[in-house]
Specification:
mainly beta, 1 helix, about 30% strand, about 5% helix
Length: about 100
Amino acid sequence: MPVAATHSVSPGGVGGCSSSIQAAVNLSAPGDTVLIEEGTYTENVAVTKSLSLVGESQEDTIVRPAMTVPICSGGSLCGGVASNIVLVQANNVTIERLTLD
């Protein structure tokens, strides 16, 4: 049975970390954890596998959408993930200690 891994994210990708949450999600296998260091991240994240997104602190780990004024036509999904900060497309996804703004 494979052991779950932790993939780290930091602003600028310093210290061997990914520079974006989506890059760390893409590297992850089901059951892994993406640990997000304090900072502000501007991106739209699509989670397509069971994993955990864990911020360093809710007050100081902030994720903002990459597109703030999407064009929508009658649904909550505007152009894929354009208006969604985190689009969860899998079961057993945990999101904790993040501010989604």
